[in-house]
Design goal:
The chain contains nine helices and 16 strands.
Protein backbone atom coordinates (compact mmCIF):
# COMPACT_ATOMS: atom_id res chain seq x y z
CA UNK A 1 0.00 0.00 0.00
CA UNK A 2 2.85 2.38 0.87
CA UNK A 3 4.47 1.80 -2.53
CA UNK A 4 1.18 2.54 -4.29
CA UNK A 5 0.76 5.76 -2.28
CA UNK A 6 4.29 6.88 -3.15
CA UNK A 7 3.69 6.09 -6.83
CA UNK A 8 0.46 8.11 -6.75
CA UNK A 9 2.26 11.05 -5.10
CA UNK A 10 5.03 10.96 -7.72
CA UNK A 11 2.46 10.89 -10.51
CA UNK A 12 0.62 13.82 -8.94
CA UNK A 13 3.84 15.85 -8.81
CA UNK A 14 4.49 15.12 -12.48
CA UNK A 15 0.93 16.13 -13.39
CA UNK A 16 1.24 19.36 -11.39
CA UNK A 17 4.49 20.18 -13.17
CA UNK A 18 2.85 19.70 -16.56
CA UNK A 19 -0.10 21.89 -15.57
CA UNK A 20 2.26 24.59 -14.27
CA UNK A 21 3.99 24.70 -17.65
CA UNK A 22 0.72 25.21 -19.57
CA UNK A 23 0.63 29.06 -19.50
CA UNK A 24 4.21 29.18 -20.77
CA UNK A 25 3.51 26.67 -23.53
CA UNK A 26 0.64 28.89 -24.61
CA UNK A 27 2.77 32.04 -24.39
CA UNK A 28 5.57 30.69 -26.56
CA UNK A 29 3.60 28.41 -28.89
CA UNK A 30 4.48 29.07 -32.54
CA UNK A 31 7.12 31.60 -31.47
CA UNK A 32 10.86 31.56 -32.00
CA UNK A 33 13.28 31.18 -29.10
CA UNK A 34 16.96 31.60 -29.92
CA UNK A 35 19.28 29.61 -27.66
CA UNK A 36 23.02 30.10 -27.46
CA UNK A 37 24.57 26.72 -26.68
CA UNK A 38 27.91 26.88 -24.90
CA UNK A 39 29.88 26.46 -21.71
CA UNK A 40 30.15 23.17 -19.84
CA UNK A 41 27.06 21.87 -21.64
CA UNK A 42 29.24 21.58 -24.75
CA UNK A 43 31.88 19.33 -23.18
CA UNK A 44 29.68 17.10 -21.02
CA UNK A 45 28.08 14.24 -22.92
CA UNK A 46 25.28 14.07 -20.33
CA UNK A 47 24.52 17.80 -20.53
CA UNK A 48 24.69 17.84 -24.33
CA UNK A 49 22.19 15.01 -24.49
CA UNK A 50 19.91 16.78 -22.02
CA UNK A 51 20.14 19.96 -24.10
CA UNK A 52 19.25 18.11 -27.30
CA UNK A 53 16.24 16.57 -25.51
CA UNK A 54 15.18 20.03 -24.36
CA UNK A 55 15.28 21.37 -27.91
CA UNK A 56 13.22 18.45 -29.18
CA UNK A 57 10.73 18.99 -26.35
CA UNK A 58 10.33 22.67 -27.25
CA UNK A 59 9.83 21.72 -30.89
CA UNK A 60 7.28 19.05 -29.96
CA UNK A 61 5.08 21.44 -27.94
CA UNK A 62 4.95 23.94 -30.80
CA UNK A 63 7.81 26.28 -29.95
CA UNK A 64 10.39 27.06 -32.64
CA UNK A 65 13.91 26.77 -31.18
CA UNK A 66 16.92 28.11 -33.06
CA UNK A 67 20.35 27.14 -31.73
CA UNK A 68 23.47 29.27 -32.16
CA UNK A 69 26.75 27.82 -30.91
CA UNK A 70 30.39 28.58 -30.55
CA UNK A 71 32.91 25.94 -29.66
CA UNK A 72 35.43 27.44 -27.28
CA UNK A 73 36.44 24.31 -25.34
CA UNK A 74 36.66 22.15 -28.47
CA UNK A 75 38.60 24.81 -30.38
CA UNK A 76 41.06 25.19 -27.52
CA UNK A 77 41.57 21.43 -27.33
CA UNK A 78 42.16 21.12 -31.07
CA UNK A 79 44.58 24.07 -31.17
CA UNK A 80 46.54 22.51 -28.30
CA UNK A 81 46.60 19.16 -30.09
CA UNK A 82 48.02 20.84 -33.19
CA UNK A 83 50.46 22.99 -31.16
CA UNK A 84 48.93 26.20 -32.51
CA UNK A 85 49.30 29.10 -30.04
CA UNK A 86 46.08 30.58 -28.67
CA UNK A 87 45.32 33.40 -26.28
CA UNK A 88 42.43 35.56 -25.12
CA UNK A 89 42.37 39.32 -24.88
CA UNK A 90 39.46 41.22 -23.42
CA UNK A 91 37.32 38.07 -23.37
CA UNK A 92 37.88 37.31 -27.08
CA UNK A 93 40.06 34.66 -28.72
CA UNK A 94 42.88 36.05 -30.84
CA UNK A 95 42.44 34.17 -34.14
CA UNK A 96 45.29 33.87 -36.62
CA UNK A 97 44.82 32.63 -40.19
CA UNK A 98 46.09 29.22 -39.11
CA UNK A 99 43.75 29.12 -36.13
CA UNK A 100 40.81 30.21 -38.29
CA UNK A 101 40.95 26.99 -40.29
CA UNK A 102 40.75 25.03 -37.05
CA UNK A 103 37.85 27.17 -35.84
CA UNK A 104 35.85 26.49 -39.02
CA UNK A 105 36.51 22.76 -38.91
CA UNK A 106 35.59 22.41 -35.25
CA UNK A 107 32.42 24.49 -35.47
CA UNK A 108 30.99 23.04 -38.67
CA UNK A 109 32.17 19.43 -38.50
CA UNK A 110 32.42 18.67 -34.81
CA UNK A 111 30.07 20.83 -32.74
CA UNK A 112 27.23 21.24 -35.25
CA UNK A 113 27.53 17.65 -36.41
CA UNK A 114 27.41 16.16 -32.93
CA UNK A 115 24.47 18.29 -31.80
CA UNK A 116 22.42 17.67 -34.95
CA UNK A 117 23.07 13.94 -34.62
CA UNK A 118 21.74 13.91 -31.05
CA UNK A 119 18.67 15.93 -32.00
CA UNK A 120 18.01 13.61 -34.92
CA UNK A 121 17.92 10.58 -32.65
CA UNK A 122 14.36 11.81 -32.02
CA UNK A 123 13.52 12.30 -35.70
CA UNK A 124 15.03 14.10 -38.72
CA UNK A 125 14.44 17.63 -37.44
CA UNK A 126 17.94 19.04 -36.77
CA UNK A 127 19.78 20.90 -39.55
CA UNK A 128 23.24 22.50 -39.53
CA UNK A 129 23.45 26.06 -40.88
CA UNK A 130 26.81 27.82 -41.09
CA UNK A 131 26.93 31.54 -40.47
CA UNK A 132 28.73 31.65 -43.81
CA UNK A 133 25.72 30.19 -45.67
CA UNK A 134 23.43 32.25 -47.91
CA UNK A 135 24.57 35.58 -46.52
CA UNK A 136 23.24 34.69 -43.06
CA UNK A 137 25.86 36.81 -41.30
CA UNK A 138 28.25 39.48 -42.51
CA UNK A 139 30.91 40.75 -40.14
CA UNK A 140 33.55 43.41 -39.83
CA UNK A 141 36.91 42.87 -38.20
CA UNK A 142 37.08 44.12 -34.67
CA UNK A 143 39.68 44.71 -32.04
CA UNK A 144 39.27 45.23 -28.33
CA UNK A 145 40.26 48.11 -26.11
CA UNK A 146 42.47 47.17 -23.19
CA UNK A 147 43.78 49.84 -20.82
CA UNK A 148 42.90 52.52 -23.34
CA UNK A 149 44.68 50.86 -26.27
CA UNK A 150 43.13 49.10 -29.29
CA UNK A 151 44.36 45.49 -29.56
CA UNK A 152 44.19 43.50 -32.83
CA UNK A 153 42.36 40.18 -32.57
CA UNK A 154 43.16 38.81 -36.03
CA UNK A 155 40.30 36.97 -37.80
CA UNK A 156 37.72 38.09 -35.27
CA UNK A 157 34.67 40.09 -36.22
CA UNK A 158 31.36 41.41 -35.07
CA UNK A 159 28.14 40.78 -36.93
CA UNK A 160 26.98 43.88 -38.80
CA UNK A 161 24.35 42.39 -41.13
CA UNK A 162 21.93 39.48 -40.80
CA UNK A 163 19.85 37.90 -43.54
CA UNK A 164 17.82 35.25 -41.71
CA UNK A 165 16.27 33.72 -44.85
CA UNK A 166 18.28 30.48 -44.59
CA UNK A 167 17.26 30.00 -40.96
CA UNK A 168 13.65 31.00 -41.59
CA UNK A 169 13.43 28.40 -44.37
CA UNK A 170 14.53 25.66 -41.97
CA UNK A 171 12.01 26.80 -39.35
CA UNK A 172 9.21 26.81 -41.92
CA UNK A 173 10.21 23.30 -42.96
CA UNK A 174 9.67 22.15 -39.37
CA UNK A 175 13.34 21.81 -38.48
CA UNK A 176 15.58 23.01 -35.65
CA UNK A 177 18.41 25.11 -37.17
CA UNK A 178 21.82 24.68 -35.54
CA UNK A 179 23.85 27.75 -36.47
CA UNK A 180 27.65 28.03 -36.20
CA UNK A 181 29.18 31.40 -35.34
CA UNK A 182 31.17 32.10 -38.51
CA UNK A 183 30.72 35.02 -40.88
CA UNK A 184 32.27 36.27 -44.14
CA UNK A 185 34.30 39.46 -43.81
CA UNK A 186 32.13 42.18 -45.41
CA UNK A 187 35.23 44.06 -46.56
CA UNK A 188 36.97 40.93 -47.85
CA UNK A 189 34.31 38.29 -48.66
CA UNK A 190 36.92 35.65 -49.53
CA UNK A 191 37.85 35.48 -45.85
CA UNK A 192 35.77 34.43 -42.88
CA UNK A 193 35.79 35.72 -39.34
CA UNK A 194 35.28 34.08 -35.98
CA UNK A 195 32.37 35.94 -34.40
CA UNK A 196 31.33 35.80 -30.78
CA UNK A 197 28.45 33.33 -30.52
CA UNK A 198 26.64 35.40 -27.89
CA UNK A 199 26.64 38.42 -30.19
CA UNK A 200 25.64 36.30 -33.19
CA UNK A 201 22.73 34.79 -31.25
CA UNK A 202 21.50 38.23 -30.21
CA UNK A 203 21.72 39.60 -33.75
CA UNK A 204 19.86 36.59 -35.13
CA UNK A 205 17.19 36.83 -32.42
CA UNK A 206 16.55 40.44 -33.40
CA UNK A 207 16.45 39.62 -37.13
CA UNK A 208 14.03 36.72 -36.59
CA UNK A 209 11.73 38.67 -34.28
CA UNK A 210 12.29 36.06 -31.58
CA UNK A 211 10.19 36.00 -28.42
CA UNK A 212 13.23 35.29 -26.26
CA UNK A 213 17.01 34.88 -26.29
CA UNK A 214 18.54 32.40 -23.84
CA UNK A 215 22.30 32.14 -23.33
CA UNK A 216 23.79 29.11 -21.59
CA UNK A 217 26.82 29.87 -19.43
CA UNK A 218 28.85 28.34 -16.59
CA UNK A 219 27.49 30.35 -13.68
CA UNK A 220 24.08 30.57 -12.03
CA UNK A 221 23.43 33.99 -13.57
CA UNK A 222 24.57 37.60 -13.29
CA UNK A 223 26.21 38.63 -10.04
CA UNK A 224 26.06 42.33 -9.23
CA UNK A 225 29.15 41.97 -7.02
CA UNK A 226 31.12 38.97 -8.23
CA UNK A 227 32.31 36.73 -6.52
CA UNK A 228 29.77 37.47 -3.78
CA UNK A 229 27.32 34.59 -4.29
CA UNK A 230 24.61 36.54 -2.46
CA UNK A 231 24.58 39.18 -5.19
CA UNK A 232 22.85 36.99 -7.81
CA UNK A 233 20.38 39.06 -9.86
CA UNK A 234 17.16 37.32 -10.95
CA UNK A 235 15.73 40.19 -13.02
CA UNK A 236 17.29 43.38 -14.34
CA UNK A 237 16.06 46.03 -16.73
CA UNK A 238 18.07 47.25 -19.69
CA UNK A 239 18.93 50.64 -18.18
CA UNK A 240 20.30 49.07 -14.99
CA UNK A 241 22.28 46.55 -17.00
CA UNK A 242 23.81 49.24 -19.20
CA UNK A 243 25.07 51.04 -16.09
CA UNK A 244 26.40 47.83 -14.57
CA UNK A 245 28.24 46.53 -17.66
CA UNK A 246 31.61 48.29 -17.15
CA UNK A 247 31.99 46.80 -13.67
CA UNK A 248 31.31 43.19 -14.69
CA UNK A 249 33.87 40.41 -14.83
CA UNK A 250 35.53 40.35 -18.27
CA UNK A 251 34.07 37.05 -19.45
CA UNK A 252 30.54 38.09 -18.54
CA UNK A 253 30.59 41.35 -20.49
CA UNK A 254 30.00 39.81 -23.99
CA UNK A 255 27.10 37.72 -22.67
CA UNK A 256 25.33 40.57 -20.93
CA UNK A 257 26.04 42.90 -23.86
CA UNK A 258 24.32 40.34 -26.10
CA UNK A 259 21.29 40.25 -23.78
CA UNK A 260 21.15 44.05 -23.83
CA UNK A 261 21.49 44.15 -27.64
CA UNK A 262 18.61 41.69 -27.99
CA UNK A 263 16.08 43.51 -25.82
CA UNK A 264 17.02 46.91 -27.22
CA UNK A 265 16.55 45.43 -30.69
CA UNK A 266 12.99 44.35 -29.97
CA UNK A 267 13.30 40.90 -28.37
CA UNK A 268 10.93 41.07 -25.36
CA UNK A 269 13.18 39.15 -22.98
CA UNK A 270 16.64 37.66 -22.81
CA UNK A 271 18.30 35.55 -20.16
CA UNK A 272 21.51 33.89 -19.12
CA UNK A 273 21.14 30.53 -17.39
CA UNK A 274 23.38 27.89 -15.86
CA UNK A 275 24.16 25.33 -18.54
CA UNK A 276 25.72 23.07 -15.91
CA UNK A 277 22.23 22.20 -14.65
CA UNK A 278 20.47 19.51 -16.74
CA UNK A 279 17.29 20.81 -18.41
CA UNK A 280 17.89 24.34 -17.09
CA UNK A 281 16.33 25.78 -20.23
CA UNK A 282 13.03 24.05 -19.47
CA UNK A 283 13.11 25.57 -15.98
CA UNK A 284 13.79 28.99 -17.50
CA UNK A 285 10.98 28.85 -20.02
CA UNK A 286 8.28 26.87 -18.22
CA UNK A 287 8.43 28.03 -14.59
CA UNK A 288 7.59 31.44 -13.08
CA UNK A 289 10.91 31.72 -11.22
CA UNK A 290 13.10 30.80 -14.18
CA UNK A 291 16.64 29.57 -13.61
CA UNK A 292 19.04 32.46 -14.21
CA UNK A 293 19.04 36.20 -14.84
CA UNK A 294 16.36 37.69 -17.07
CA UNK A 295 16.79 41.02 -18.89
CA UNK A 296 13.90 43.12 -20.16
CA UNK A 297 13.25 46.76 -20.98
CA UNK A 298 11.38 47.11 -17.69
CA UNK A 299 11.18 44.98 -14.57
Amino acid sequence: MTEIRHADEAAAIKAATLIESLPWVREFSNKIIVVKFGGNAMVSAELTRAFAEDMVYLHTVGIKPVIVHGGGPQITAELERLNIPSEFKGGYRVTTSEAMEVVRSVLTNQVSGDLVAQINEHGPIGQSVSGEDAGLFLAERRGVEIDGEEVDLGHVGEVVEVNPAAVSAQIQAGRIPVVSSLAPDRDNPSESLNVNADEAAASLAVALGAAKLVILTDVAGLYADWPNKDSLVSHIDAEELRELLPSLETGMIPKMTACLHAVEGGVPKSAIIDGRVPHSILLEIFTPAGSGTEVALTN
